[in-house]
């Protein structure tokens, strides 16, 4: 996989609960001999959908690619404090 072929998107842009990783790869090989010529073209695409255990901050998501490894940092969205409602008992 090449860095140019990486595309990361979310199914729901407001609340990222899944990451979708589509990829496309194409390779060519040629063999030229005095008796024959052969050219092979392989093309394929795949997609991985990964569910996330919690909602993340989409604006702070970071990704780095190096040495064939894709690292993605997904900061968790802080949970809002639960509101306490005072109920008077008569």
Folded structure, characterized:
With 90 residues, this protein is mainly β. It has one domain (3-73): Immunoglobulin-like (Sandwich). 0% of the residues lie in helices and 47% in strands. The chain contains no helices and five strands. Strands 1-2-3 form a three-stranded antiparallel beta sheet, with no helix packed on it. Strands 4-5 form a two-stranded antiparallel sheet. The model has no long low-confidence stretch (mean pLDDT 76).
What is the CATH third-level topology name?
A: Immunoglobulin-like
CATH class descriptor name: Mainly Beta
Radius of gyration over all CA atoms, rounded = 23 Å
Which of globular, elongated, flat, extended, rod-shaped describes the shape? Answer: rod-shaped
Q: Got a strand count? A: 5
How many DSSP helices? 0
Strand order of the largest sheet: 1-2-3
Distance between the termini: 68 Å
Structural class: mainly beta
Q: Describe the biggest sheet? A: 3 strands, antiparallel
**H/E series, N to C?**
EEEEE
Number of domains: 1
Which stretches are low in confidence, meaning pLDDT under 50 for 5 or more residues running? none
Average pLDDT taken over every residue: 76
Helix content: under 10%
Strand content: over 45%
Which architecture per CATH?
Sandwich
Write a concise keyword list for the protein shown above.
mainly beta; 90 residues; Immunoglobulin-like; two-stranded antiparallel ribbon; 3-stranded antiparallel β-sheet
